[in-house]
Amino acid sequence: xxxxxxxxxxxxxxxxxxxxxxxxxxxxxxxxxxxxxxxxxxxxxxxxxxxxxxxxxxxxxxxxxxxxxxxxxxxxxxxxxxxxxxxxxxxxxxxxxxxxxxxxxxxxxxxxxxxxxxxxxxxxxxxxxxxxxxxxxxxxxxxxxxxxxxxxxxxxxxxxxxxxxxxxxxxxx
Length: 173
Fold this sequence. Notes:
Structural class: alpha/beta
Low-confidence stretches: 67-74, 82-99
Strand content: 15-25%
């Protein structure tokens, strides 16, 4: 978050650094979009120079949730290193599952996951921030549980561990 912005206490910013994750990013983003949460969701998809088609997948989410600027406008924004959340339209409103959702996509040269996360922090507008990796899948109620834990314990930071799901073996392999 930039120093001159006041965080919005009713917004949960979800930062997802993405690098060559075309095989997992759809399931990841869809699991974020499916979350029910009392906060407004801001999803920051930070493309760290992907070369495998991940960038195009991210652009499709941006077009869906921020309006369709058209290919020419989107390409101009990619050249500037963003997908134009400042340049095009208002935030999309959704009744289910979140009351309002903003999807931001930024395309940058590969500088590593730490840079992508830090860039997401600069852009985030929420008082509450969480990081989700591009190969993660969130279980239903994930954000609700985190926010309830914060409120119950009255702490500034909530951390959690994850579970690893292994795909079933095919043909005994």
